[in-house]
Design a protein that fits this description.
Length: 150
């Protein structure tokens, strides 16, 4: 009688692939939920063109949509990501990375205090779903420009 040996590393690899595939399916299902066309993200404060001190508060606004912490909520909720001096538009079909230029507010926060160097800066909001993926269509604010005084 011949004994078939099981390869534990192959079993682990297959289980890992199945887990990743399940997560991708979950992300694709959640991403497929469209955002209402009237949903709008906007920056309440500071105003476009405003001059601000080195430390200032940014207030986030959202219409016709709900806020929920990352990892929670449904297709009609999300959380804010603040783009600071971000060139172009981030990838809209994958989770937004956390960088110096993309700040995550996964706790459902609606404001933050920033400290930026003197000079001109741009700010823009992008709403992300529970997996940090922008909605479809994306819910983004207008990009504003501020000047931090010296």
């Amino acid at each position: 009688m011949r004994t078939v040996r099981k390869c534990p590393s192959l079993t682990c690899a297959l289980l890992g692939l199945l887990f990743c595939a399940a997560n991708l399916v979950q992300a694709a299902e959640f991403r497929s939920q469209p955002a209402p066309k009237d949903a709008e993200a906007y920056i309440i404060s500071p105003a476009d063109g405003e001059t601000v001190p080195e430390n200032f508060t940014v207030q986030f606004g959202l219409r016709n949509f709900g806020i929920a912490p990352a990892g929670e909520g449904n297709e009609k909720t999300g959380h804010h990501h603040l783009l600071i001096d971000f060139e172009g538009i981030p990838a809209l079909d994958t989770p937004l990375p956390a960088t110096d230029n993309i700040r995550h507010f996964g706790g459902g926060q609606t404001e933050t205090t920033l400290s930026l160097s003197p000079g001109k800066h741009t700010l823009q909001l992008v709403l992300g779903d529970k997996l940090h993926i922008p909605h479809n269509p994306p819910i983004m604010s207008k990009k504003i420009t501020i000047t931090v005084k010296e």
